[in-house]
Amino acid sequence: MSKHQYEYRKAMDSIHVSREWEDDMIQKILNAEKAQKKRIHRAHRLGLAAVAAAACLTIGAGAAEAATGIVSDIFAPLLGTAHTEIIDNIGYPVNASDSAGGVTVTADAVIGDNSSVCVIFSMTKDDGTPWTEVPDSRDLVFEDSTFDFSITDAGDGALGAHGSSWFISDDPENRVIRFVEQCTIEDGTPSGHAKETLKNLCIWDEASQSTKTLVKGKWTLRFDLDFEDTSKQFPSGQAVEFLGEPAVITELMFSPISFSVTVEQNRTEYPLMDDKKYLDGTSEAMDQLDIVLNLKDGREIDLGYWAGGSYGADEGKSVFTKSSMFNEVIPLEDMESVTVCGTEIPLR
Known about the structure:
By secondary structure, the chain is an alpha+beta fold. It has helices spanning 3-11, 19-35, 71-79, 84-90, 281-287, 303-306; strands spanning 58-59, 92-100, 103-112, 116-125, 140-153, 160-168, 177-186, 188-205, 210-224, 232-234, 239-242, 245-254, 258-265, 291-295, 300-302, 308-314, 317-325, 335-340, 343-346.
């Protein structure tokens, strides 16, 4: 396995599709890289499949008492230190741990809304020594990781999910390594009980051009996905032009930590134009669904570039949904508008 194959495999670890599908996509990405180095790391933050992931979710519910004041500190390495009051209001501390192989993994805190959830875990050695064998946490990967949790179904039974996971080193003494798990649900809301299962911590070895096991063990953590939902549904129904033909926006959801936009079009055939990069015409069409968030301070954030999504067809219509968590906290009052396929829509 090459370094790039390792990176793409790591990026896909949290996407529950067949191994054949992954192998095909990895090879297509590698072929595209040979032609031109463009958006090569996009998969790390992009869910490449949605409907296939639904099998890993279970129905349920759960609740816990709120506790504020520490969640923003835990999420600071991921979301920064701005708007800490929002994170403390949305999130909850977890503090569920499991130990194996001389390492303790702790689920520290969770944030979420009506479509997305994010959990931060910390890993420490039981003897208190630093991770001197890990100069770069981006070279870490679990041999196997599974994030199972309860959901509240939206009612139509068409559940889907996409997400990603990665490591962060923010401790100057290198005694703590953080692991981030994100997942976005479509047509359902994350809730209730969750279980994170992690097996064998591995690291990329440049000399052998392969991964090697750093810590052998299995960690199982159970906790509740508790958070305050601050999402808002904005008026939809706007007409836009998508791929040169009329389309209609059927959902506009934003929260301080995520978004979801759905576009419907009266067609089901999307020819494949670039078989070196895409598996089919619908995945290529999904990539062309442009979404830009315009803030009141004049900043523009390209949401379509990093977002995951899903596609569905029914009775001659196609439904494209793009959704993801932000890389920062964005208060709803700071959002001026969203531009979908070139059409600007006020968010107020």
